[in-house]
Design goal:
about 325 residues, alpha+beta, five-stranded antiparallel β-sheet, four-stranded antiparallel β-sheet
Length: about 325
């Protein structure tokens, strides 16, 4: 979720949503930037930006124009859903706006009316509150409709002198094939995160007890003269490092083997060490139905019980942003 909030804050601040920008904001929070997630998110923001499919600049305002006082007749857009009961939404959105649906055939854009002359806020605390409110609307849409394609915080759509709802319908019509394909693929599924990490010192201590070669070298170092002991220590160091690398590769393979057949899709993401935290070995984004994730958790618990010094953390659910692009 850090990646989504980073993109929302960048957009609301009038800054371009780029891979480097999102990564910098995520890293500033202490979280680990995931390049695959970032690339998917940036692509999704480009595709789903209102007016992105149209060459008419009036339907695709620049970020600077989005931040200018809105002319009468704009819609604030949250995301796109497909099918379902659209009656009685009336959710409270950002800035207290009331959410409703603008439809075209089986597609619906979740929007609220944007007051004439209103500007997007610039205060950091207000933007954070808006980001949370925006995400809450998307979360409720996931629960109600099964899938949602999100639009970045602060996106307005409309043209002067035209009904903004008709402009939104035109956007849905132009992108209907793309939206239907993505929503169909994600329907009924949620994203979960899996992080596997270990304490190298604890695992090394176990290897020293289990590996005959390391045990033999340890004993030889203890009884060898100084010069020979130094060479044996170097050999011991390289042997231990190779054993750790082999154990890490085996652990990654075991996790992937257990996960692969239990989820609808998964992506291997970038890992980055965080000071004071266990060393990361594997980070996965999992796409799964709620009925699947219980089996995933059970398989991971069984594996973790047998792998000493290893931690496995399963997080979620949340909307499947990593798989939306």
């Amino acid at each position: 979720m850090h990646h989504i909030y980073a993109a929302l804050l960048l957009h609301a601040a009038g800054r371009p949503i780029t891979p480097d920008g999102v990564a910098a904001v995520v890293a500033s929070t202490g979280a680990v930037p995931h390049p695959e997630t970032i690339r998917a998110l940036v692509h999704l923001c480009e595709v789903l930006a209102p007016g992105a499919a149209s060459p008419d600049p009036a339907t695709a305002p620049r970020a600077e124009a989005d931040r200018a006082p809105a002319a009468p007749g704009r819609c604030y857009v949250y995301g796109v859903v497909r099918g379902g009961d659209l009656s009685g939404l009336a959710w409270q959105g950002v800035g207290g706006g009331t959410v409703y649906a603008v439809t075209w055939e089986d597609l619906a854009a979740l929007v609220h009316d944007w007051p004439a002359g209103a500007s997007l806020p610039e205060e950091e605390e207000t933007l954070k509150k808006w980001a949370v409110d925006h995400m809450q609307v998307l979360d409720r849409a996931m629960e109600r409709f099964g899938a949602v394609l999100p639009v970045a915080l602060g996106r307005l759509i409309g043209r002067d002198g035209e009904d903004p709802r008709e402009v939104v319908r035109g956007w849905l019509r132009e992108n209907a094939t793309l939206f239907r394909e993505k929503l169909g693929r994600l329907a009924g599924k949620r994203e979960y995160g899996l992080r596997v990490a270990w304490d190298p010192e604890s695992v090394a201590a176990l290897l020293l007890k289990e590996d005959p070669e390391l045990g033999r070298l340890t004993e030889e170092i203890r009884t060898a003269p100084p010069g020979q002991a130094y060479l044996l220590q170097e050999k011991h160091h390289h042997t231990l490092r190779a054993a750790l690398e082999t154990r890490a590769a085996e652990l990654r393979r075991k996790v992937l083997e257990r996960v692969r057949g239990l989820v609808s899709d998964f992506r291997v993401e970038h890992t980055r060490e965080v000071p004071g935290q266990p060393q990361p070995l594997l980070s996965l984004a999992l796409l799964a139905e709620e009925t699947q994730i219980g089996a995933v958790g059970a398989a991971l618990e069984e594996l973790q019980a047998r792998e000493k010094g290893v931690e496995m953390h399963l997080t979620g659910p949340w909307p499947p942003y990593s798989f939306a692009a």
